[in-house]
Amino acid sequence: MLPVALRPMNLRPGQAVLARALFVGLLALLVRLIFVLEFAPQPLFDVNLVPGTDMEFLVRWAQRISGGDLLGRGSGPFWWAPLFPYSLGGVLALVGRSNLLGAAVAQAALGAVTCALLYLVGRRLLDEATGLTAGLLGAVYGPAIFYTGIFVSTTLEVFLALAILLAVTGARERPTFPRWLGAGVVGGLGCLARPNFLLGVAALWGLLPVLLRRPDERLDWSPVRRAAIAFAAGVIFTIAPATARNWAVGGEAVLVSAAGPETFRIANSFDSPPLNFVYPKEPLMPLTSTAFWRHQARKAVLFWWGFEPPQNVSYYLAREHSAVLGLPWLPFWLAVPLAAVGLWATRRHARGLAHLYAFLSMYYLSVVAFFIIARWRLSLIVPLLLFTAAGLLAIFRWIGAREWGRAGAAIAAAATLAVIIHPGPGPFIFAADHGELGYILANRGDYAQAAEHLAQAAAGLQQNGPLHRDLGILLFRLNRLTEARAALERAVTLIPDDAAAHRHLGRLLLGPGGDPDRARVHLARALSLMPNGRGAGEARALLDTLGRGGRAP
């Protein structure tokens, strides 16, 4: 067996458990609060309000809810899972509709509770030392800290994943109707936060005969039937309000959210990449085709790669701007190999861990069916830290017992796997990440830094016409005229029907060392493309200036 930590002196067993849970939670809260207070003033925190990002969509949705639009009439069925925006809306109603710092502090508190739950699940499924170690690892796991400051449902999802596992653990220990009903309610909440949980919750329900069978005893079907009814009722009654709202307000029979089919198409078309996503131009691969299953196999393997695939915002870019994230926390590529050792070391506990295996395996398959991004992996990786802790403690125990063969084999296996899944030296900050930060800095008025990041983005995204146009406009504003001219000329080549690119290039060509004849061509082109739109008056004025033989003001 794995070692059990000694209870603190003068504390009853229940008090000792509470003390350890508080210790883990307070450590996790401290780390997260330091990160939030450091991160919130940073430009990258503004990514939460960048138009077109998932965060901006969810924050605006939450703000509408906090303002009283509880049903979202006229918006159709829920496109995304509703629990996070409703939870965030409730927080914003308390702290202020625009107070994202207050909302991030609330997420920090939820992340701290999650780490305490990780400890509680570990001590009940394995032992005290494993639970405590897992909770401490969760408290300082870098990606989990990072998503405290990002307004997507990740922090809520991880909390509910641990809450589901703890609720089912308690119901297995004392299989009463109320406990299984409560487990079903928690499972339903998980599905309202992340519809992928539906597969894991269904697996738990189907596994009830295994979960409730005592060793060396015949299966008694009576408690299984009661548990099945209670668990299913809890799930159904919790999800039902969302389903009813989708029917009554949205006019469609949608269980939780409507995005699933479109997300599946984006993830599994012939030109869909296995990591992250781009909007495909080719059709969906037939489910019976070899190409489809080869694509699933690639995703199943790449799920375990040590790289943190970004979506909307990059963990690696945040590390460049955060002293907290820059600390050498336990990385994914080391946590997973140690978890593999832990899975082997805890194999004798397989019966007690059956619901953990089932839920995490089904969630893994549900993520693989779509696409691999860092925030979707986190609901599996944080619970998996139980096995990371078990593996780490097992190695120490074998070394302490001088079982050199077992310790050496475990270390060698973990090291080999770590080398295999290590993401390499990078760089992992991509052109799109620089572009995103560049636009944020420009909106903040920091044009010099914005230009540097947009230039790095443009160097990597040579065919992105709007990016070259915006870089040119920014460089023009900074009076870096030679660079601005090159960027704008590149832009009008890539996007010849963009009025703004022609207008700014025309104005630049009217300046010192310019070309008035070419300026006239571009200004006329801008005016023909947008005769009454934004900037049309400026284009006419500049053309009038040219007609009088003058220069641009």
Chart the SSEs and their pairings.
Blueprint: H1 13-39, H2 54-66, H3 83-95, H4 100-125, H5 128-139, H6 142-146, H7 154-173, H8 177-193, H9 197-206, H10 208-211, H11 221-248, H12 260-267, H13 290-302, H14 315-320, H15 332-345, H16 354-368, H17 374-400, H18 404-421, H19 431-443, H20 447-460, H21 465-477, H22 481-494, H23 499-509, H24 516-529, H25 536-547
Helix pairs in contact: 1-4, 1-5, 2-3, 3-4, 4-5, 4-7, 4-17, 5-17, 7-8, 7-17, 8-11, 9-16, 15-17, 15-18, 16-17, 17-18, 19-20, 20-21, 21-22, 21-23, 22-23, 23-24, 24-25
Task: Please provide a written account of the structure.
With 553 residues, the protein is mostly helical. The protein has 2 domains: 13-421, no CATH class; 496-553, no CATH class. The chain has 25 helices and no strands. The chain has helices spanning 13-39, 54-66, 83-95, 100-125, 128-139, 142-146, 154-173, 177-193, 197-206, 208-211, 221-248, 260-267, 290-302, 315-320, 332-345, 354-368, 374-400, 404-421, 431-443, 447-460, 465-477, 481-494, 499-509, 516-529, 536-547. Helix 1 (13-39) runs parallel beside helix 5 (128-139) and helix 4 packs antiparallel against helix 5 (128-139). The longest helix has 28 residues, at 221-248.
- The separation of the N and C termini measures 81 Å
Shape: elongated
Beta-strand percent range: under 5%
Could you tell me the mean pLDDT? 93
Low-pLDDT residue intervals, each spanning 5 or more residues: 1-8
- By secondary-structure content and strand pairing, the structural class works out as mainly alpha
**Number of strand elements:** 0
> How many distinct folded domains?
2
**H/E element sequence:** HHHHHHHHHHHHHHHHHHHHHHHHH
Characterize the biggest β-sheet: none
Residue share in helix: 55-70%
Radius of gyration: 28 Å
Counting DSSP H or I runs of 4 or more residues, the number of helices is 25
